[in-house]
Write a structure and sequence with these properties.
By secondary structure, the protein is α/β, with parallel strands linked by helices. The chain has 10 helices and 10 strands. Helix 4 packs across helix 5 (151-162). Bound molecules: adenosine-5'-triphosphate (ATP). Adenosine-5'-triphosphate (ATP) binds at residues 22, 27, 47-53. Residues 22, 27, 47-53 line the site of adenosine-5'-triphosphate.
């Protein structure tokens, strides 16, 4: 049965009323958001708020319990394996720390998705890999092993790998984590350049407030299970929502709880049932 199609011309990805949780714990409670085509959308918010989970739902690694996750108008959650495989070929993903295969050199790391997903000739693979490496400034590093390059260079190789198949959508989870300020600036500039030059749509999950607010066209701030704010970086900075204010101004106190939900203090430390006084 074909997947039902919805018209959403300006949004490449759209979440509509998505509920999702792991085990008993609900992480997303009716989340709705839109990712406009051609733009960089940043998803930010407190740790554990479900940002990586949103990427997993879009990539089809998890399926929504309720609601729809639309990619180009089609519901990822309703796709069979073959449809999902085809949708995933249109996505590039760079997951947390974008680990490279340590036993493959830089060239082979970027060639990997091409070898996995296409039957291109060796000559074509070579041209594409060198083009992608050129785009991230590392054509000259093709023969180096991951152990021979810096963390910033490794991130750029991972970027090149995530665009190897010419995706329409690229998802980056924490692309700046662990980078020094110069490498971070380079990575941010690259994400912008690749997005604009290749006509991509980008979803970026990042904790780096300043870099992200500078880079993104649109920012979505997740509160517990919901969207706390959505808009341009300037709109989000000006938000009066207490959670957004706490987040944007990096305040240690506010609505974002310090404690992960669990048993109350009394339950854990109070008098135990049956314990001797
Ligand atoms: N595979 C899993 N099994 C069970 N619980 C999970 C799993 N993955 C994530 N969680 C829980 O789901 C919640 C959301 O996790 P997620 O990684 O999406 O948050 P996040 O906003 O990306 O966090 P961070 O910013 O710290 O990376 C957290 O409470 C986490 O403990």
């Amino acid at each position: 049965m074909p997947t039902p199609s919805f018209s959403s011309p300006d949004a490449l990805v759209e979440l509509r009323g998505v509920h999702f949780g792991y085990d008993e714990r609900e992480v997303l409670s009716g989340l709705s958001l839109r990712v406009p085509r051609g733009k960089i959308t940043a998803i930010m918010g407190a740790s554990g708020g479900g940002k990586t989970t949103v990427l997993r739902l879009v990539g089809g690694q998890q399926r929504a319990h309720r609601g729809a996750v639309l990619f180009d108008g089609e519901d990822i959650g309703q796709m069979n394996d073959e449809q999902l495989y085809r949708a995933r070929r249109r996505m590039g993903m760079l997951f947390q720390y974008g680990a490279l295969f340590t036993d493959l050199d830089v060239f082979e790391n970027v060639a990997f998705p091409l070898r996995e997903h296409t039957d291109l000739s060796e000559a074509l693979v070579r041209d594409i890999v060198l083009m992608k490496l050129h785009a991230v400034g590392l054509r000259g590093a093709r023969d180096l092993m991951p152990s021979q390059i810096s963390g910033g260079m490794a991130r750029r190789v991972a970027l090149a790998r995530s665009i190897a198949l010419d995706p329409e959508l690229v998802m980056y989870d924490e692309p700046f984590a662990g980078l020094d300020p110069i490498s971070l600036g380079t990575a941010a500039e690259l994400i912008r350049r690749l997005n604009d030059a290749m006509g991509l749509t980008t979803i970026l999950v990042s904790h780096d407030l300043e870099a992200t607010l500078q880079l993104a066209d649109q920012v979505v701030i997740l509160g517990p299970g919901r969207v706390a704010a959505q808009g341009t970086p300037a709109e989000v900075r000006a938000s009066t929502d207490p959670l957004v204010h706490q987040f944007v101004h990096a305040l240690p106190t506010g609505p974002v709880p310090f404690h992960y939900a669990g048993p109350s203090i009394d339950q854990d430390f109070g008098p135990q049932q049956g314990a001797q006084p």
